[in-house]
Design brief:
363 residues; alpha/beta; Rossmann fold; 2,3-Dihydroxybiphenyl 1,2-Dioxygenase, domain 1; 2 domains; 8-stranded mixed beta sheet; 7-stranded parallel beta sheet; 15 strands; globular; binds guanosine-5'-triphosphate; binds magnesium ion
Length: 363
């Protein structure tokens, strides 16, 4: 565990810059126990003020906090992030709060991965809470918000009509809604509209500038997240995490699945596995990223098709121990993949003929 703030800051910079030595050091760390909370919502909704208020309450409870302010859009430059920093400067003297801004770097998948690694680092460093602020206006930012175990979507009164507009984006990953600026008129109406849309998540009214509703919000954050409205994919909570299909070309395959209504949540290249991935919950499309990729071999042998099924298990470590004891063939030691998930592959010989990926259920 890293206690010393200066070494933590140095390692964080290395992880953000994707420095191989820093990433290797991160991989060598024992995983931590942090609760990773995403705070997302439209520009100006009061996300930073809310994060600041949450951090204040957590510190008063003696808990340590890391705040990651991530800006995936080109909307903001360093100036706005600096504004957040200044607003949060009351925390600067407090070593129990570690603040980091992360701006656009490379593609979105890259930023999501860097954010996931940063959250993992903060957890390994013993932080109790990692609060990730992202501006969430559309589908694009979802990947970053998904790094969190619990996502709070911050809305403000008077934006009823906008619910439709942002519905296909961040709304579907909300575990909790915070109606911030509830000192303004229209909070009750917004709550009714959310219910009318079919959202069953907890809805908490907050006035972040006054610290109102923060305890209630924290209570919900500590509980289990709920599901989104009916009819939306429920890829987050079920035992099935995803079904992976090997394809020759992502570009050729994606439109078909979009045509049947699946949303593209992002693409990324996983260098370690030599594979390009398109996330289209509940599917994951896999394309070889190199001639010697395992997916190339799979395509040669079988011409594409079902590659593996991924299931979430509540206690991966215990499951692995039981599988080992029963003689099952595991293909790797449990390790962290994209988004910080811990996973292990089990050989088809042990599973009835299908390659099986087991993923630690988020806690
Ligand atoms: N009246 C009122 N104003 C609030 C409340 N919460 C935040 N504000 C104000 O709203 C403005 C925007 O707050 P921020 O916390 O910067 O909002 P943000 O969502 O982080 O903004 P971006 O990061 O730029 O997207 C600031 O002037 C805050 O003081 C609230 O509960 N009530
Ligand atoms: Mg902000």
């Amino acid at each position: 565990m890293i206690q010393d703030l200066r070494s933590l800051a140095r390692l964080a910079t290395g992880v953000e810059n994707r420095d191989p030595a820093a990433l290797a050091a991160l991989d060598a760390l024992e995983p931590g126990h942090a609760r990773v909370v995403g705070i997302t919502g439209p520009p100006g909704a009061g996300k930073s003020t809310l994060v600041d208020a949450l951090a204040g309450v957590l510190r008063a409870q003696g808990k340590t906090v890391a705040i990651l302010a991530v800006d995936p859009s080109s909307r903001m430059t360093g100036g706005a992030i600096l504004g957040d920093r200044i607003r949060m400067q009351r925390h600067y003297a407090d070593s129990g709060i570690f603040i980091r801004s992360m701006a656009t770097r490379g593609n979105l998948g890259g930023l999501a991965r860097a954010t996931a690694d940063m959250a993992r680092l903060m957890s390994a460093a013993g932080r109790d809470y990692v609060l990730i602020e992202t501006v969430g206006v559309g589908q694009d930012e979802i990947e970053i918000a998904r790094v969190a175990q619990v996502t709070v979507v911050v809305l403000v009164p008077g934006m009823g009509d906008d619910i439709q507009a942002i519905k296909s984006g961040i709304m579907e990953i909300a575990a909790i809604f915070a109606i911030n600026k509830s000192d303004h008129a229209g909070a009750a109406r917004l709550e009714q509209e959310l219910r009318a849309e079919g959202y069953s998540c907890p809805i908490v009214r907050t006035v972040a500038t006054e610290g109102q509703g923060i305890d209630a919000l924290l209570d919900h954050i500590e509980k289990i997240p709920c599901n989104g409205p009916p009819g939306l994919p429920d890829g987050e909570r079920g035992a099935l995490d995803h079904i992976a299909v090997a394809v020759k070309s992502l570009e050729a395959a994606i439109p078909f699945y979009q045509a049947i209504g699946l949303a593209l949540h992002g693409t990324e290249t996983i260098d370690a596995e030599k594979v390009r991935v398109a996330m289209m919950p509940p599917l994951e499309l896999l394309e070889p990223a190199a001639a010697d990729s395992p997916i190339s071999k799979f395509l040669e042998k079988r011409g594409g098709g079902l590659h593996h099924i991924a299931l979430r298990v509540p206690d991966l470590k215990a499951a692995v121990e039981r599988l080992r004891a029963s003689g099952a063939r595991l293909l790797n030691e449990p390790r962290a993949g994209a988004g910080g998930h811990i996973y292990v592959f089990v050989h088809p010989a042990s599973t009835g003929g299908v390659l099986l990926e087991l993923i630690q259920e988020r806690q």
